[in-house]
Amino acid sequence: MISPFPRLSLKQAVSLLALLLVFPLCPSRRVIAEERRLPADEGIAGLEQALRKLRTTARMTFVTAHPDDEDAGMLTLEARGHGASVTLVTLNRGEGGQNRTGSELFDALGVLRTLELLAAGQYYGVEQRFTKVADFGFSKNAEETLNKWGGHDSSLEDIVRVIREQRPDVVVSRFQGTRRDGHGNHQAAGMVGREAFKAAADPSRFPQQLKEGLLPWQAKKLYMDNVRSTEDYTLRLDTGAYDPSLGVSYAQFGLEGYSRQVSQGSGGGRIGPGHRYSYYKLLQSTIGSTETKEHSFYDGIDTSLSGLASALGAEESKVPFLKPQLIELEHRVNDATGAVRPDDPSLAAPALLAGLAIVNDLLPRIESSSLSPAAKGELLDRLRTKHEQFEAAANLALGIALEVMVDADAPAAASGEPVEIPASQRTFLMAAPGQTFSLTARIYNRSKYTVTPDEIQLELPQGWQYSELRKGLKPLNSGDDSFVRFRVKVPDNAEYTRPYWHRTDPQKESIVTIDQPRYQTLGLPPWPVHAIASYHVEGGTGRIGGVAQVRYADPVYGQEQRPLAVGPPLSVELQSSTQIVSESRLDATEVTVDIRSNTPKPINAQARLDLPEGWKCEPASQTVSLQKEGEIGSAKFKITPARVSERQYEIKAIVELDGKRYSEGFSVVGRRDLGTFYYYRPAVQEVSVLSVKTPPDLKVGYLMGAGDEIPAEPWWFNTTWASRHSTRASTLHIRRGQPPRALPSKKRP
Q: Which segments in the chain show pLDDT lower than 70?
């Protein structure tokens, strides 16, 4: 058998061993937009899904180009039906397309489509990663795409990173890397997806990743999608198979997730029951022939728990205790599966907690063993995955729930118990740097066992502080709950909740800048405030986590909640992001700065403009007073350009509050079915000075395109613009330095 662990030099092996000892745990980086769970992931249905995952160690990485390119049915079949750990890698975020549902374009659209794909992925049951390349619109071929992306390595590096992190058994490329794939982004995705299969195993490729602690990894098989039934396929999968725990087929359930992507018109499709086939071709294999028909992606791969010992090869003798413990782990999973009853899933809890105890015992023994760094890293990673899965399954069996809510500004009862918040009352929506607030973490027991919470702690970013205000933990009988109330202090330098990437000029840049490398390849950065509750019950111990939420009143849906975010106390925006000025007409124009308060307390902010040299502004500054969160105030300035030439200039708004300067604003991106996130943009107006001459009384008809702001500036032509209901208009032809010609259009029939 060929080892999946590539040969390392002695120096590399020593370095990697040191990193494993310094960073023994690699926590899950899974991010779901709102940390909300689907009904299919709760109760008996959720427990059945969790038990399937405990039976296998199978892992897959699926590589595609854009959101909505993925094979939803196949991903759902593998992740939910077979219990495999599946990672979907999407090269870009679809930010170069148009928006069917709203006004977001470019990087704001990229955030929206990220939310849509993350929501779809909850249905598929997959983790998700993204690379740093951007969608720049339709591309005719791979050469054009790779040229704009700066070659293969920009996206290949991130795919290799994901493979080295996830250590999949199989890699699947959605596209083939040929003209048959159509879109140039598709062709490029097919090319780099196939390259990554070997590159991830090569220590000389992207060696910086090894210095960070990642190990080279050779997956066992490489498949490609986009294969027809009439062609020489290796594998045929029936995604139309019915799953009783879902109540529909995998194709139907996957399509329900796929339909979250309505910004690009993917929301209307529905299918009925019945066979649905997907076809895949095996391209490369390290374990056998590529010519044999298969029944599963994992044919020839031992994905059993006890198979983790066999995968060590000759090194298995270094850990003689491992295989007996893994076999015992398999017995506990079988016991839990057999114990489940629809009216009492908690009967599975003792076996699940016993399995969790076995994994807890194995982890330190493997860490201190004499296994090679590569073998040790792989085994520890698989066992930590099982640790997370056993914890999740035990929580489902016991019906343990953890709610973490920011407290409203309401008086507390005499006992210190937070007063129940009426539906009409909400908390603040966003924490600001320097703010202090309280929150309550409450644990619920819905099983027939007595569950005793041991402690509840907060997990906060570096520099944050918290203390307990009241600890009301007690043994919980069925239906009981208990709580801990905390005071949280946000540091003055707290990071805002925002995308970890940006582009200065989305119309020119096709690779994003990574501002926070620790989040690289994630869909979105994690929410800042989490709580972890530990408990014990007869037969073992467990843990459960939750994300801090805020409550607010939606005018249509009533009381809603979303994760607590961090942002500035105010948001700054110029009413128009573009302005066009004629070089021959330097008339004064009005610029309006909008300021929105993000804090419940009154504020008095000072607004001014940063102008090009020689330009004049009246008044020099203005005070804007806002009394409550969400209130918007405006400051109007009269701008007179001076000494201009035909080029672009920049006007920047600056607002001062409590000695700090703010010069950007944010918008809330999302929908009720997706959750929300935040997109920031600088408070800047681009002023384009053009040399244009126009005849008097010219009328212009203009057809708008996506993101087109030209019609907002008709005055720069010194013309009258025809309304959209006009039957006659003029077409403007401009030649630099010459008066334009107006050609009357024909009447519409």
A: 1-35, 409-426, 704-749
The reply to whether 180 and 278 lie within a common domain is: yes
**Domain-terminating residue out of 261, 282, 303:** 303
404, 439 Cβ separation under 8 angstroms: yes
Does residue 341 lie in a domain region? no
119 in the same domain as 263: yes
pLDDT at 732: 41
Whole-angstrom Cα distance, residue 136 to residue 110? 11
| Residue 470 β-bridge partners | 485
Residues 727 and 684 in one domain: no
pLDDT tens string 49-78: 999 999 999 999 999 999 999 999 999 999
Under a CB-based contact definition with an 8 Å cutoff, are residues 318 and 292 in contact? no
Whole-angstrom distance, CA of residue 69 vs CA of residue 408: 43
* H or E segment to which residue 211 belongs: helix 208-211
Q: Is the dihedral of CA 227, 230, 233, 238 positive or negative?
A: positive
Which CATH number covers residue 594?
A: 2.60.40.2310
pLDDT at 266: 81
Rounded to whole angstroms, the Cα distance separating 487 from 475 reads 24
Select from 52, 56, 286 the least CA-distant residue to 171: 286
Cβ within 8 Å of residue 595, ≥6 positions away: 570, 571, 572, 605, 607, 624, 626, 632, 633, 634, 635, 655
For residue 555, the tally of other CB atoms under 10 A from its CB is 5
* Residue among 437, 358, 429, 434 at smallest CA distance from 394: 358
What pLDDT shows up at residue 706?
A: 60
Domain count, the chain: 4
Beta bridge partners of 669: 677
Could you tell me if 481 and 444 are in contact, meaning their C-beta atoms sit under 8 angstroms apart? yes
Q: How far is CA 620 from the centre of its chain?
A: 42
At which of 283, 303, 323 does a domain end?
303
Range of the domain at 118: 58-303
Phi, psi of 138 (to 5 degrees): -65, 135
Please state, in angstroms and as integers, the Cα–Cα distance from residue 361 to each residue in 11, 357, 358, 410, 561, following that order. 31, 6, 5, 46, 39
Task: Kindly state the percentage of the chain with pLDDT values over 70.
Answer: 87
Q: What pLDDT score was predicted for residue 555?
A: 84
Q: Are residues 593 and 626 in the same domain?
A: yes
Strands (E), 170-313: 170-173, 221-224, 235-238, 242-243, 248-249, 277-285
SS3 208: helix
CB-neighbour burial class of residue 27 (10 A; exposed 0-12, middle 13-18, buried 19+): exposed
- Does some domain include residue 35? no
- pLDDT for 709 equals 59
Position 690 scores a pLDDT of: 83
Structural domain includes residue 296: yes
- Of 137, 131, 113, give the one whose Cα is nearest residue 266: 113
Which pLDDT tens digit goes with each residue over 464-521?
A: 999 999 999 999 999 999 999 999 999 999 999 999 999 999 989 999 999 999 999 9
State the maximum Cα–Cα separation within the chain, in Å, rounded to a whole number: 92
- Same domain assignment for residues 97 and 182: yes
> Do residues 143 and 189 both lie within one domain?
yes
Give the containing element (helix H, strand E) for 732.
strand 730-735
Is 0.90 topped by the overall pTM?
no
